[in-house]
Structure formats: C-alpha cells, structure tokens
Write a structure and sequence with these properties.
Length: 132
C-alpha cells in the first residue's frame, strides 16, 4: 500500500550520497533528481521508494517537517477518490488532485493529491498516468 516515504533535510546535496549508497545496495537508484528533492526506487517498479526533500514551507526540516507517507493508487480516479474520502472524514486539503511536473520519457505524468489527516500528518495519493 505504501508507494514511497518522504523525509525532510536541511542539506539535500550533503545527505543525498548517503541515500545513493543505500539505494545502490538495494539495487535501485535515483528516479527523480531536482533542486529541492531526490527520489530513489525502481523506475516503473512496484516496490516502495524513498525521497529526501527540503521542506516546501521553507522552514527547517525537523522530525515530521517534510515527512509524508504516500499511498500508491492504481489510477487518477482512485487518487481523486482517496482525496475525497480523506476530506469527508475530517482531513484537510494540502493540494487538490492533478498532474505534477512534466511527463517522463514514456509520456507518463506524476498525478497526485495531498492532504492531512485529522491530527495534521501529511499524506499523498499518487500514480503515474498517461495524458493527464
């Protein structure tokens, strides 16, 4: 059920090598690499991945700030349903369902919705979708 886990960092470049080494041992590598975040896992694979990110709110990363559990959905419709279920059950909006970023080499786009649970824990529902 878990697609990937996001961890906060105050030194992305300094800490990325640590995760590169762990990922290499596990037989995976970087699948996304940007100025504010890096993701490791299997490109197109079904296993869980991990990402390291500078907190989007601009504050210092601490345990929990920049941390998010991501739920891997089967398609954009399920992403939308998970988002709606979260809001209907006391969750709060952190980003409506929609495509994020540019399509990859196969024409798939990261499609996601962001929300918090009733206690404020950040969650995400996502899938890779064609032509969104």
């Amino acid at each position: 059920m878990i697609g990937y886990v996001t961890l906060g960092t105050n030194d992305l470049q300094g800490n990325a090598g640590f995760y590169d080494a762990l990922a290499a041992e596990m037989g995976v590598g970087r699948i996304m690499d940007f100025d504010t975040f890096v993701v490791w896992g299997e490109l197109g694979g079904s296993g869980a991945g991990i990402s390291l990110v500078k907190p989007y709110d601009g504050n210092t990363a601490t345990v929990g700030n920049g941390t998010m559990a991501a739920l891997q959905a089967k398609d954009p419709e399920q992403v939308k349903r998970l988002y709606e279920i979260a809001l209907a059950n006391g969750g709060s909006d952190e980003g409506a369902p929609g495509p994020r970023g540019e399509p990859d080499a196969q024409g798939n786009t990261f499609y996601a919705a962001y929300f918090r649970d009733r206690e404020g824990n950040k969650l995400n529902a996502f899938c890779m979708a064609r032509d969104q």
